[in-house]
Design brief:
Distance between the termini of chain A: 33 Å
Order of helices and strands of chain A: HHEHEEHEEHEEHEHEHEHHHHHH
Order of helices and strands of chain B: EEEHEEHEHHHEHEHEE
Strand content of chain A: 15-25%
Number of strands of chain B: 10
Helix content of chain A: 40-55%
Number of helices of chain B: 7
Shape of chain B: globular
Shape of chain A: elongated
Helix content of chain B: 25-40%
Number of strands of chain A: 10
CATH topology of chain B: Rossmann fold
Number of domains of chain A: 2
Oligomer: heterodimer
Structural class of chain B: alpha/beta
Distance between the termini of chain B: 19 Å
Largest sheet of chain A: 6 strands, mixed, barrel
CATH class of chain B: Alpha Beta
CATH architecture of chain B: 3-Layer(aba) Sandwich
Strand order of the largest sheet of chain B: 6-7-8-3-9-10
Strand content of chain B: 25-35%
Radius of gyration of chain A: 33 Å
Number of domains of chain B: 1
């Protein structure tokens, strides 16, 4: 609908003659749009922090050798239904643990372009001992360079040096909670005992603090080669292969692709940590619900003000109609007003929303690894806010405009 | 037929609120081009109601209305609006200008809506009309800063802007002093005579009415004199 110059002129006169009301209407749109932007930026910020934190130890896809499934009926599919089978207390006598010959899988994964990083791990359940204190934990044999590439573990090392792991065969990095429980400090010795009863003495060359208690309280790192030595395994033996992909929301298809290539269990992060994904989605729903509510309230504000304007200008509407302005002209005149309000309020709302986000991003919040409240700046939030704002003002403006177009001039002019 | 500006046949009008009331009863008449006509009658006789039907704004009636040879009964609101814009000029009892606009802008408005002439030409024509009514020095003033009489004159200038076939007035001189009434009357007389425009004015002013070419008088919804 092209607005004629004359109609635009009248709309403009209406807006400027009631500057205060116009300003209030613009402010209500500004508020709605800026809150939409802020709420969404904040929730995205929280989500990003949360997943960032989770991905400091969790890979996007994990490949491992799952223990065999339900084996209580060993004869299943081996005998027909007619035969009665009874096995008392079934046990699995032997199965292969871990992934042997990981080199082959690693080379294969290297050819997939969606993968951004791969690291092998050898995780062993062990006891850590220092004097009489004995703590159950997990010893991770890792590839020093690739591990850091995937999880950025080096940045969580609060004492010592991550890269030293590569240099010392008896060096170990302990989680901060684990070190505390064992009363260990840098350069102290710790004794590691495996399930098979093998014992080895290590020197603490670093302390790691990821702020995730489950990691800090149980985990220790050594180089993967030395871990293989500890449990007498060949080169190429790993328990886990951790994979990061370029877009972490996009793991399902890739997991399926990898499943075709290996006999091992391929597990995307959503499967292992459903609560993370659920929390993200729930927060997004809350953000959208709250911000849309605010926008709708702003819409009611505009509706109210435009309704008042129509009532105030009802004599002028009648005279315009008497002069030959038709219903379409009247709708144009009033709709133009609300769209101008919507556009001005939208622009102000984008600026104000950005400012609020910046201010909130500077509020100190020192819990876990956070320094300030998290905000993620996404241009799509700003575009969506503007679009939703315009739609709201359009609807809120159209109803009073429609009403104005239906004014009967005779009724008004005769009084 | 060519000479007829307006004709009405068997016009009947009812009000239904609060009770059904027969306002206009079987009214038929014809008005020639260039006639200067007064519509009189006592208060409540239905003369304003008749005028609003003639103006095409009120469409709830029985009978037929023809202006300038085109039958207007039964046409859609938007068509009627376009027709009014081009063929009918209107002056109301209570002036009704757009208060935010200057006197000049108010006068230009119907012509801008019609959009048949360039803005510059419309502007000149509007100034000329204001001059005709002796208020050209008020052209740039916002309408709400003018006195009641001046507003009335601006409204008359506005009614003339598209050179309509018919100019209708509901007490067009109701707010004017005798001097200005004289001016307006002379202008109307001149328009009718020189340009062949038809004037229909509802009036209470017997003096005004007696100087018109013709008087239509209504009583209780019936045409008693034409």
């Amino acid at each position: 609908m092209i607005v004629s110059k004359t109609n635009y002129k009248i709309a403009n006169a209406h807006l400027t003659s009631r500057l205060k009301q116009t300003l209030v209407a613009i402010l209500s749109v500004t508020f709605g749009i800026s809150m939409y932007i802020f709420m969404n930026s904040f929730m995205t910020g929280v989500n990003d922090t949360q997943t960032g934190l989770a991905f400091s130890t969790l890979a996007h896809i994990r490949i491992y050798n799952d223990i065999p499934k339900d084996n209580t009926n060993l004869f299943k599919n081996k005998v027909d239904d007619e035969t009665l089978v009874k096995v008392r207390n079934p046990k699995i006598i032997q199965y292969t643990e871990g992934i042997k010959n990981s080199e082959k899988i690693l080379n294969m994964l290297d050819t997939i372009p969606e993968i951004s990083g791969i690291t092998p791990q050898l995780n062993i359940n062990v006891f850590f001992r220092n004097g009489a204190t004995k703590v159950n934990g997990m010893l991770s044999g890792i590839d020093v360079v690739h591990e850091d590439q995937l999880f950025g573990t080096a940045q969580y090392v609060i004492e010592g040096n991550w890269i030293d792991l590569d240099r010392r065969s008896d060096g170990i990095l302990l989680g901060s909670g684990l070190a505390k429980k064992l009363s260990l400090r840098l350069n102290d010795n710790v004794i590691v005992t495996t399930e098979e009863g093998i014992t080895k003495n290590y020197k603490v060359i670093g302390i790691v603090e990821t702020t995730l208690a489950s990691v800090d309280n149980t985990r220790a790192y050594i180089r993967i080669g030395f871990a293989r030595q500890l449990i007498s395994k060949n080169i190429g033996y790993v328990t886990d292969i951790q994979i990061n992909v370029k877009d972490y929301n996009n793991t399902a298809a890739l997991s399926e692709q990898i499943r075709q290539m290996t006999p091992y269990k391929v597990e995307p992060w959503q499967e292992a940590n459903g609560q993370l994904e659920a929390a993200n989605k729930l927060r997004n729903i809350i953000a959208i619900a709250v911000s849309l509510t605010i926008l709708i309230v702003a819409g009611f504000g505009i509706y109210n003000i435009m309704n008042m304007t129509v009532n105030e200008k009802i004599r002028e509407i009648a005279i315009l109609k008497a002069m030959g302005f038709d219903g379409k002209d009247i709708i144009q005149i009033f709709l133009t007003q609300s769209i101008i309000i919507g556009i001005l309020g939208g622009i102000a709302g984008i600026v104000f929303g950005y400012l609020v986000s910046v201010v909130v991003n500077h509020i100190p919040f020192k819990i876990a690894s956070l320094e300030t409240l998290p905000i993620t700046y996404r241009s799509s939030d700003y575009v969506m806010a503007f679009v939703f704002g315009l739609i709201t003002t359009f609807i809120a403006g159209y109803l009073p405009a429609k009403k104005a177009s239906q004014v009967d001039p005779v009724e008004i002019i005769r009084g | 037929m060519e000479q007829l500006a307006l004709s009405v046949k068997e016009l009947n009008k009812y009000f239904h609120e609060p009770q059904t009331f027969h306002v206009l009863k079987d009214i038929s008449f014809e008005i020639k081009k260039g006639e200067f006509l007064a519509l009189t009658g006592k208060s409540g006789s239905g003369k304003s109601t008749l005028l609003y039907i003639l103006s095409t704004m009120d469409t709830a009636y029985e009978g037929t209305l023809t202006i300038n040879g085109s039958k207007l009964t039964g046409k859609a609101q938007n068509e009627l609006a376009a027709f009014r814009n081009e063929h009918i000029g209107f002056v109301f009892q209570f002036h009704y200008l757009l208060p935010e606009f200057s006197a000049l802008d108010n006068v230009m408005l119907p012509a801008l809506k019609l959009g048949k002439k360039p803005v510059e030409e419309i502007r000149e024509k509007a100034l000329e009309n204001l001059k005709l009514l002796g208020i050209e020095n008020q052209a740039m003033k916002p309408a709400n800063k003018l006195s009641g009489g001046q507003q009335q004159l601006v409204a008359i200038a506005r009614a003339l802007i598209n050179e309509p076939t018919i100019i209708m007035g509901d007490e067009p001189t109701g707010n004017l002093d005798s001097k200005n009434t004289r001016i307006v009357f002379d202008i109307f007389r001149e328009l009718a005579k020189e340009r062949g425009q038809t004037i229909i004015a509802v009036t209470h002013d017997d003096d005004f009415a007696s100087n018109c070419d013709r008087i239509l008088e209504l009583m209780d919804g019936k045409l008693i004199h034409q």
